[in-house]
Amino acid sequence: MTPMTTSAQRPPRDAVRARAGVAMLFFTNGAIFANLLPRYPEIKAGLHLSNAAFGLAVAAFPLGALLAGLTAGLLVRRFSSARVAIVAAVLSSVGILIAGVAPAWIVLAGGLFLAGAMDSITDVAQNSHGLRVQRLYKRSILNSFHAVWSIGAVIGGILGAVAAQLAVPVGVQLTGSAVLFSLMAVVANRFLLSGAEPASVEPASAPDVRSPRLRRGPQPLAKYGILAALVVIAASGAVVEDAGSSWSAIYLSGSLETSAFVAGVGFIALQGMQFIGRIFGDRLVDRFGQRAVARTGGLVVFVGMGVALALPTVFGTVVGFGLAGLGVATLIPAAMHAADGLPGFRPGTGLTIVSWLLRVGFLVSPPVVGAIADASSLRLGLLVVPVAGLLVMVSSHVLAGTVTRPADNEPADQSAAVLMECTECQTAD
Fold first, then answer.
1. Where do the domains of the chain lie?
2. First to last CA, the chain
3. Residues contacting residue 50 through CB under 8 Å, at least 6 positions apart
4. How far is C-alpha 172 from the geometric centre of its chain's CA atoms?
5. pLDDT for 367-410, tens place per residue?
6. DSSP 247
7. What's the CA gap between 231 and 168, in Å, rounded?
8. Angle formed by the axes of helices 290-310 and 219-242, nearest 10°
């Protein structure tokens, strides 16, 4: 290997610095919300809420995300992804603190609504900045950012579980975490890329639209069909994540009668295994393609959580949540990456739509699971997890197949080039 070749493969210095900054944003985003989750059983009991009422309060988080999420693309283009991500992260921690010290259902729902609204904006902004960095690296690194998010979620979950076991007041715990992680988000700004978002985006790995099945109809119909399938994939990942965050502690402490700390281990297992999946996710995607990785992940979710619910034990349930986290590790990054490179949409539009609509999974799941739990059992309500695994296996055909490394003068993805040749698809939405 010549020195010239080595230099060409090395990412620019500002990209390396920006990767560290984006990783800090993902870490804080995961840790802020996860601090609250192990305290859910305590909050639910303190407010004397039924499963359905608690599920409706939790649904305020994704409701806020849905209502605010569509503004994210506009905010990012107007103020830059770096600034938007940092400000929204700080406001999200404020919302979590309000929810944690809520004296009534309406305040709990209001705090989660604010946190969800800010979280959705942070989500789009940090992923947008991460994709900017990925294009400078000229290889897949997006899953590594989501792996760092999982680290933050695990650490946040551990802090919350330990605080719950030691009976630390919720307000004291969440005030400390809000200050700490907000400062980390502000410090991250020193490392991020400067300037506004690029006016155009070169698709790095768009969905595979070469099959005749996807090219028969008018191209606008094809691109919206692909986008809808990407939303299903991302929303299915959201349903699985929500089951771990909203219900694992309640299921373990209630149905299986574990201690406060062990009740938090279900969420920690899900996020820990999700972290492992994301650490190896970029290499697996580069070798086998998004489609094969997503289908395998859906199967792992279906079998892992299905067996855990069929044969309920504390150990089996923790393992089941862990396998569910492993299965969905790459789903949301894959859907976001594909949507961001889907031709026919203005920069940030596809990413914003998928990031916005995946919140439907977070919105629908808590009240549905809660209603089923009140009518029958929480164990039955958690069947939404293996069902989500099935939906992933069905929808993953729109993701890119085996990745090929193009020459420097060729399009980054041949299927994207085919779709971009269509005049109809070049019209901005």
1. 14-192+204-426
2. 45
3. 370, 374
4. 27
5. 899 899 999 999 999 999 999 999 999 998 888 776 544 444 44
6. I
7. 39
8. 40
Residue with tokens 């197949």: 401
0.90 exceeded by pTM: no
Look-up of token digits 């070169």: 202
247: nearest Cα among 393, 411, 38: 38
Alpha-helical (H) ranges within 289-402 are: 290-310, 314-327, 331-340, 349-357, 359-375, 378-381, 384-395
Please state, in angstroms and rounded to a whole number, the distance separating the CA atoms of residues 192 and 190.
Answer: 6
- 213 neighbors 344 (Cβ within 8 angstroms): no
Token output for 342:
């889907």
Per-residue pLDDT tens digits for 207-257: 444 444 444 434 667 778 888 889 999 999 989 988 888 889 889 988 888
Which residues are CB-neighbours of 352 under 8 A, at least 6 positions away?
Answer: 69, 70, 72, 73, 124
**Structure token pair of residue 257:** 């009668």
Is residue 204 a contact partner of residue 285, using CB atoms and an 8 Å limit?
A: no
Rounded Cα distance between 310 and 328, Å, is: 20
**What residue type is assigned to position 240 of the chain?**
V
Identify the CATH class of 14-192+204-426. Answer: mainly alpha
